[in-house]
Amino acid sequence: MLLSLHIKNIALISELSLEFGPGLNILSGETGAGKSIIIDSLNFVLGDRADRGLIRHGESTASVQAVFSVHNPGLSQLLLENGIQEEDTIIVRRTMNENGRGDCRVNGVLVNLSFLKNMMSLLVDIHSQHENQALLNESNHIRILDNFSHRTSILKEKYRQSFAELKEAERELSAFPDAAERDRKIDILEFQLDEIKKANLREGEEESLIKERAKFYNSQKVLNGLSAAVALLDGDNGGFGANPSLHSAIKELNAIASYDDSYADLSGRLESAKIELADISDTLKRELENSAFDPSKMETIEKRIEEIRKLKRRFGSTVEEIETYAEKASSELAVLRSAAERIGMLKEKIEIQKSIAVKLAKELHAVRSEDAAAFSAAIIKNLTDLGMAESTFAVDFDYPAEDETFSSHLHENGADAVRFMISPNKGEPLRPLSKIASGGEMSRFMLGLKNITAELEDIDTLVFDEIDSGISGRIAKVVACKLYNIAKTRQVLAVTHLPQLASMADTHYLIEKNVIGGKTLTSVEALDEEASLKEIMRLAGSIEKSESGLENAKEMKKWADAYKKSQKLS
What we know:
This protein has helices at residues 35-46, 73-81, 113-120, 141-149, 152-175, 179-199, 205-217, 219-234, 242-256, 261-290, 295-315, 319-337, 339-385, 439-453, 473-487, 499-503, 529-540, 547-569, and strands at 2-10, 13-19, 24-29, 61-69, 89-97, 104-106, 109-111, 124-128, 392-398, 417-423, 431-432, 461-465, 491-495, 507-516, 519-526. The chain is of the alpha/beta class. The protein is elongated. Among the domains are: 1-123 and 459-471 and 482-540, Rossmann fold; 199-332, no CATH class. The chain has 18 helices and 15 strands.
């Protein structure tokens, strides 16, 4: 149910807050007062295309916020999929700027326009002379008929389960390539897995090889460095190397050790250094002996690096990714090797589920065909009440012939395509709803249909914009009663020019246009009983102080109250 609507900078509205109640909410006012602005604002927050022309003159941005109380099971999954926490209250806010840009938020979460429209279609249905939403969408007709029927629910649940299994088996079967393609893929996967296995990759191996290769690339520098280090330690041809110099130093210190004990200590320390340097010298000599450049080893390193890089280019940028690819390839190979057996099982399952689905689809058609007659009779009765006694209504079925292609016509709802057809006047052929020309006929048909389907559509709020087009006199009272019938179980918002509809209001709002401070502004006021009677008088064409007009308004209100009371007692 729509709890409130906050409008800012839309057309003649500077800022306006409206609170709506349950039952029948009537909005009335002079022509041009701004009733259409309220509907335009509601359409905007419901997801209609942003029209920069709606922004109030002199302003750069506009916004509409709608607050709903929600008890709709179908909405829960939709909210969950979009990361919006389910609440009993939903706040929807949409903005736009002078460049035509803006955003949409649901409970503070930014959403796209497609999601907004989808969500709001579960909460509000608007009917006007120019907008016929859910009921004029032929894809909804089969759902409306099934909801009216009640008998289809268990059948449809069984059918959909079988249909889902059929589609899943067909999807899996279609994913298998033909035998020749399977053999080709098996050969490729076996070759790839063998290649990966033989490579025997190790984590960090490439980095280690690159370092070793760098060492070979600089082998002459290494040899020169090692030779120089050995020469500096041992001396060149008996020259003054580190080791001979240490030996001479030790000899000199030992010669004077008898004069001072500290010289003996220093001699001992140099002896230790001499042993360490001798060890280093031996190590450098061994490195020099083993550092001879081997071109064949260099070639082996290069080939191994290229082998590793080739595998990385084909199967993954790291050893871990290559191993993951190998695991997936092994699984795919196992599936392909057992494909013939799995394909046989799937084909058998498809035939079984197809047989079950076809049987259930035929049963669904039989039930729908029977209940279509009762549905049509209920529509015709409502149309007769609304002054369209010459109208004819029928449910048109597009149903496949009994042949071998029947199963190809199956869809989520069975094998039926359903379309509502109407002839408003005697002697005229039945035509789709969308082909009805008269606004008055359309309004009455939609109202009659809503009386039957409001309970079935699971939409809490219904909006009728000037549903009274082309209606007057006795039919106006019938329309008022029909609107109230819907409002007994659903919230109804109706914009009207008819006093009969206004007298039936549970809450009556007056929309006015005033000039304040040199600016034209639209305002909306919830009317008390006395103010409502005055507005009913105006709608009926009475002057403000007419006693007979007031009596007529009171009489109309008395009639409406009596009808409401009779409905509550029934």
